[in-house]
Write a structure and sequence with these properties.
This protein is an alpha+beta fold and 163 residues long. It contains 3 helices and 9 strands.
């Protein structure tokens, strides 16, 4: 817990207005993440909401269904996997989960509302696509995007180690 830092930041909403948000990240990533989020603000990249996972009782499914952008969440990569997610260390961020869903190797799209965004060739507000300003901003701090994964795709996910 002593390695985590609370970031308070502004972001553009889908309504074209400025909103406040909070992210918890690892202390070694705090300045970098603030820089990236500042770039996204400059780009006017819309983000539905940025709330701490606590608002959703630590439930990743509820957070994704609310289209919440979040970072720290002490959880496994997948239920019963026995492997801690990079979110558990404050070294991962999920952005606009509905517009940028997780497409597992097998099973349904997560969150379910993200099924409307699986065709990545039709770019709509809040979507993250290869080579855009969001991917470029995270790449500038050495973070990698889940949209580049080969066995599954996690279009919302960025992490310091690529997983």
């Amino acid at each position: 817990m002593e390695d985590l830092r609370l970031l308070t930041l502004n972001h553009w909403g889908f309504d074209g207005r400025i909103h406040n948000g909070e992210l918890v990240v690892h202390r070694n990533q705090a300045a970098k993440v603030l820089g990236v989020m500042g770039k996204l603000f400059e780009l006017r990249f819309p983000i539905e909401r940025i709330q701490l996972i606590d608002v959703y009782g630590g439930d990743d499914d509820r957070s994704m269904a609310a289209n919440n952008t979040s970072a720290f969440n002490c959880r496994e990569v997948e239920s019963n996997s026995g492997t801690w997610s990079q979110h558990s260390y404050g070294r991962a961020i999920d952005i606009n989960p509905v517009q940028n869903p997780y497409l597992p190797r097998s099973g349904p799209v997560e969150p379910p509302a993200g099924a409307a965004y699986t065709d990545r060739s039709v770019v709509r507000p809040g979507m993250i696509v290869d080579g855009d300003g969001v991917v470029t901003a995270f790449r500038s701090i050495g973070w990698r995007w889940g949209g580049y994964w080969t066995s599954s795709k996690d279009y919302q996910h960025f992490s310091s180690n690529g997983r």
